[in-house]
Amino acid sequence: METVNISENAEANKLINSVVHALKEFSGKSENAETDKLINNITAELKTFSGKMVGHIKELTDIGTALTVNENTPKLMEMIVDVARSFTNADGGTLYIKDPDKSILAFEIVQNESLKTRMGGESGKITWPPVKLVDDNGDENHTNVSAHVALTGETINIPDVYEADGFDFAGAKAFDTQTGYRSKSMLVAPLKDHEDEIIGVLQLINAKSAIDGSTIPFSRESQAITLSLASQVAVVLTKNKLLEELENLFDAFILTIAKAIDEKSPYTGGHIKRVAELAMMIALKIDETTEGPYANVKFNKDEINEMRVASWMHDIGKITTPEYVVDKSTKLETIYDRINEVNTRFELLKKDAEIKLLKKKLEIAQTNDPDAVTKLEAEHAEEIKKIDDDLQFVIQSNTGGEFMAPEKIERIKDIAKISVQRDGKEEPMLSENEVENLIIKKGTLTDDERRRIQDHVRLTEVMLNELPFPKKLKNVSKYASAHHETLIGTGYPHGLKGDEIPLQARILAFADIFEALSASDRPYKKGKTVTEVQKIMGFMIKDQHIDKDVSDLFFKEDLFSKYIKENYKPYQVDVPVKE
Fold it and tell me: Which among 421, 444, 467 is the end of a domain?
């Protein structure tokens, strides 16, 4: 017994074969040749029709799946027109999308099988002017069939546009004259989203007969299936648009937060932007590399985006760091630089010395001893010189630097022991807190302030862990919060070692250090030259604080040339830079 397999569904095949076999059995019992012929024709047509219906069902299933998973909107729109034409056997199809202000219909996809035309989506740009929904007088455009459908939500099915009333088809006729085409049957359906708002129009032209290929009107079945497809398509396009808008909002939020952190300090403005630029430059180069330690490392689109977000968010914890700590340009700076208070005390000390000089001069005047006056003035001059020297030393110590020698620390402590009278009270020349700050060995931060700065990484992790990142961004917190870890476990906040630190975090750590060393906008130091940066980073590689492979790639691949040209000041560039 002959069987046919039209569907992948066993029950459907069983039903179809039962009908076919019943007809054949009846044909075998019939003695009428015409009846046999009719039954055979019915059987053949049933097979064809059943196969076609099953094919349509499979196409509907496939397009439903494709619409759900496809995030490439241009490709998706091409697929929509392809499928709509396939279902209706249409020669041509056009997809219009309303612009945001709903004043025009923009061409998104144009296809015509006979003219071998494919435009829009991933098939080339469409230069045709859009269809106006409202004319210059503010009146709605109901003369154009696509505009009418977009304005009213009606579905228009026209057997022959040359004989249709109510619409202006001068454009279609002019197109036909120019190309030799014959526009005839037309089906125009609205795309309505989940809120029943019209977001676009799907227009199909010239349905073809499956028998002889002639142009026929669009059937009711074609109209129904097109409306069903249009409804599904509108929802998916709306979903994709909402996802795109949410991603844009998320990106804008990230950049705003990063800018707010940079703006918090006039001295580190642009730090996050430059670190993100460096990190992405390195990540993209690693992805391109086909040799060396990164030959087998490939980042997909989502991983690159995850790295980008982590780069922009790596310092979010600094939101909680006090401005005077972030901006601390001198050792005595808090809300303001307390060196002014110290200067006032030295001035008081000088005035006290002057008063003491005048009192002694009055005493000597009674003895009429000019040599004693000369000696007294010399001693006073020496005392003033020492006061000025001490003041200048404190001012110099206040600026910070790379290293403060032990003898200088002792001198600060000795100066602190000097007393000065103010408002009838005696107070030390330098308070305990001022001494603590002035004897900082390197930089301008005390140990407590340095811990507060370092704590921004822990707070970055805490804050980012609170955010419900989607699966594609699940590692943002891990990468962002590990940019101060070292390969030997001496970093913070977790003391990670070696492979415990993800490659993305190592890239971020390198970018953060390179930017900090290169920056010329810090108040407490000048930006280092390229040679100095390379030398320092060489020591850091030796001490296993940063990844040697990342550093080698950055310098050997000459990634720094572009960065140097855009961010270095002329005095910092002491090596040849490629144009």
Answer: 444
* Same domain, yes or no: 29 and 87: no
| Mean of pLDDT values over 131-139 | 88
* One domain, residues 453 and 566: yes
493-502: long-range pairs with CB below 8 Å, 24+: 493/454, 493/457, 493/458, 493/461, 502/475, 502/478
Same domain (yes/no): 89, 232: yes
| Structure tokens that stand for 373 in this block | 């006056």
Q: What is the pTM of this model?
A: 0.67
Q: Are residues 272 and 310 in the same domain?
A: yes
Tell me, what's the pLDDT at 208? 94
Q: How far is CA 336 from CA 91, 141, 397, 432, in A?
A: 77, 66, 17, 18
Provide the 3-class DSSP secondary structure of residue 134: strand
| pLDDT score of 108 | 92
| Claim to verify: residue 233 and residue 375 sit in the same structural domain | no
- The rounded mean pLDDT for the chain is 84
What's the number of domains the chain is made of?
4
Which residues, other chains included, contact 235 with Cβ-Cβ below 8 Å and sequence gap of 6+? 193, 194
Contact criterion met (CB below 8 Å) for 408 and 398: no
Split at pLDDT 50, 70, 90, the class of 518 is: confident
Q: What is the CA radius of gyration of the chain?
A: 40
Residue 319 DSSP one-character state: G
Assigned domain for 412 exists: yes
How confident is the model at residue 44, as a pLDDT? 63
Q: What is the CATH number of the domain that holds 284?
A: 1.10.3210.10
Query: What are phi and psi for residue 158, nearest 5 degrees?
Result: -115, 120
Residue type, 564: I
pLDDT at 47 over 80: no
Residue 82 has pLDDT above 80, yes or no: yes
Our CA angle for 496, 280, 316, nearest 5°, is 60
DSSP labels for 402-451? S---HHHHHHHHHHHT-EEEETTEEEESS-HHHHHHHT-SSSS--HHHHH
What pLDDT sits at residue 27? 55
Residue 259, in any domain of the structure: no
* Three-point CA angle 111, 114, 115, nearest 5°: 65
| The pair of three-digit structure tokens given for residue 252, joined into one six-digit string | 């804008």
